[in-house]
Amino acid sequence: MRMLDLFSGIGGFHKGFEQAGYEFDWVGFSEIDKYASAVYRHRFPKAVEIGDITVIQPERDLPDHIDILCGGFPCQAFSVAGKRKGFNDTRGTLFFEIARILRYYRDIEKPIPCVVLENVKGLLHHDSGRTFATIYRVLTDIGYTVECELLNTRNFSIPQNRERIYIVCYLGDRGRPQVFPIGESSSQDNQTQRIGDHTRTITTAHSHGTAKHMSYVKIPEATKQGYAEAKEGDSINLSVPNSKTRRGRVGKGEAQTLDTGMQQYTIQSGIRRLTPIETCRLQGFPDDWNAYGEFDGKVVEMSDTQRYKQCGNAVTVDVVQAVAQKVKRLMK
Description:
Rossmann fold; seven-stranded mixed sheet; 2 domains; four-stranded antiparallel sheet; 17 strands; alpha/beta; 332 residues; 9 helices; 27% helix
């Protein structure tokens, strides 16, 4: 089986599909961040690096057929945290590079059977829904049936409140949904128990700068009360400390959505920043997944800054695994 991994980051899609039992005899990956690419090379030494998606020439750079195309195409153009310029932002136009590759394989009569894409929740409502409608129309015009679902990392036994839209495309009309919905809604009690169990695993990482025990910390929020109480085991987001409009700075027993700046902290007999190990766990990666990268054949240690950025940009491995398991029926 062959997979094209676009906007590949540190390999969340690749690892998620492997954990779902897929075996690949060829994987090509495209990523412009040199540090993320270094981690990918280190973790998947047999993968073929094909560079910037905008200069890929399928007839020259890609094999004669591909089974799965996946990619978390850049989300900043659609994110509530960004300026939400969408297709007016050069990052937003990169979706059309995906479409260009899909059209090439359609035109040579070897269409890619399955496409799995990921983006932020804001994509659904950007420009009053017109952006998503454009993406849907482009994909259906190429010949795909399109399914999508908003999935939250917290529902996959990982305590991070991270909502992302997953889009699965396949050839032909199979009469009913093949992939979504994924899983069944569970009771709040069961969900809380799963989150609590995993939180105890996450907090085994080395703690820095602990202070005297405190029952709770008041965190300023744009609410009527003016603050939220953060207790031991909660997370605190301090990415914009002087904001007068921010709400939801405190995550109750879970992390909030990881971002590239990584200004999240946790309370454990004091306040400390989340460690790179914890951010790996919150994205479903092994503890040391992005601790090292490969440059010119040499293994190099990654800085904490790069590790935070990489995890903030990554897809959650456990969510990809769940999607990949449902996608298997499309590959038969």
